[in-house]
Amino acid sequence: MNKHLLIKKLCEICSSDDWQAFNSYLEDELQIESTNLVLEDDILRAILSTENIFNSFLTQSQSAEFLIHPLLYQILNFALTYSNVHEKRIIQILNFGIAHNLNIAKRLSCDKILQNGNLIRNNKIIGRAVVFSATQALNATDKLFAKLDELNDSVKAIRAKQRYLANGYSGLSVRLTDDIIEKERTFNECEYTFLKLLEENGYSKAPKYLGVKNDKDLFSYIKGKTIAYTYEMSKSYIIEITKELKTINAISKKYLNDKVYVHGDLGTQNVVFDGLEIVGIIDWDKTFIGDEYDDFIYVFWVWANVGNLQRDDEKMFEILKTMIDTYQPDKQFRKNFSDKIWQRMERILTQTPIDSKIHQRIYDWVKWSQLWVEKYHTKILNEIG
């Protein structure tokens, strides 16, 4: 069917909020159960504005109690992209998903969990869990963060020999089998080289690179919990990650002199915690050779949540000072530090395609963060460098 006519037809059905007509159209006309139909944003937005149609997605299939509608995954991930608009609907899906997944965990085991939630046993779909795949940090309420954590925990409770990891943003490409992480190959020699160097230097909080098998990169698994969303982390956590960064960079400088291996994405989603302790730093696939302050600035920006619209400006500066005092950088590191912060933030924006769904959100986040840098430029110059 013509794409424009498909959008028009489904939006018309949504406007009448006729769930029977909507599901019949998908199943009879489009055969949704036997296709990999991807709904357009306009249709997903229209679904979220309905009552009867939306609620029809929050039910199990009549033919099997462990099956849910295959499009629920798309609806949830679209809503998460605009969490400030659709939070009520997201919470409804998450509450349904948590209960559904825990029911599965009590009564079902499978060989693997696929990225869209399909549960596979003997190469057959035996159920479908509610999962999500956040690809960027979310700015939302504590209630939503807590619910997303609950959903992750409910997925982990499902017994599976092989599963896509529910932590962080890498659920689409990372699987865990027998305590070995299997990822799509990055062909990033900086990643492989530095992980080997960390292992050789006795650093135990990074995964070991185990080589390639079946055209996948293999790594050791670090047990613990990650935080996949934008929180304002406590000062104690920020001090601890700063100490880890100092140790990691010291190893780099043994081999690169004035440069270091930069993690490139050292947010909380890529740090493994055991309670209050940092036990691992994972997902080194973006590693590159860069400047010592690169990861430091990113940690400050994300862990202190400088882009938060309700931030305490002076508190942000105090956190930065605490990090500087903990890290004890040299004069070259400190020189023109506010300019370095600005440029690091700008780099994130330039790396986000302008036609991306998240470009506007990243743009707002960067520009709001840069307002703080501009405001504190003189103070950073006088007290840091």
Topology, please?
Blueprint: H1 3-16, H2 19-29, H3 41-48, H4 52-57, E1 60-61, E2 64-68, H5 72-81, H6 83-107, E3 109-113, E4 118-121, E5 124-128, H7 142-157, E6 159-164, E7 174-177, E8 180-184, H8 189-200, E9 209-213, E10 216-220, H9 235-256, E11 260-262, E12 271-274, E13 277-281, E14 288-290, H10 293-303, H11 313-327, H12 331-334, H13 337-350, H14 359-375, H15 377-383
Parallel strand pairs: 3-6
Antiparallel strand pairs: 1-2, 3-4, 4-5, 6-7, 7-8, 8-10, 9-10, 11-14, 12-13
Helix pairs in contact: 1-3, 3-5, 5-6, 6-7, 9-10, 9-11, 10-13, 13-14
Describe what this molecule looks like in 3D.
The protein is an alpha+beta fold and 385 residues long. The chain has a domain at 235-383: Aminoglycoside phosphotransferase (APH), C-terminal lobe (Aminoglycoside 3'-phosphotransferase, Chain: A, domain 2). It has helices at 3-16, 19-29, 41-48, 52-57, 72-81, 83-107, 142-157, 189-200, 235-256, 293-303, 313-327, 331-334, 337-350, 359-375, 377-383, and strands spanning 60-61, 64-68, 109-113, 118-121, 124-128, 159-164, 174-177, 180-184, 209-213, 216-220, 260-262, 271-274, 277-281, 288-290. An 8-stranded mixed beta sheet has the order 5-4-3-6-7-8-10-9. A two-stranded antiparallel ribbon has the order 1-2. A two-stranded antiparallel ribbon has the order 11-14. The radius of gyration is 23 Å and the shape is globular.
Secondary-structure class: alpha+beta
Radius of gyration: 23 Å
Going by CATH, what is the homologous superfamily of the domain at 235-383?
Answer: Aminoglycoside phosphotransferase (APH), C-terminal lobe
Placed side by side, the strands forming the largest sheet appear as 5-4-3-6-7-8-10-9
Low-pLDDT stretches are 168-172
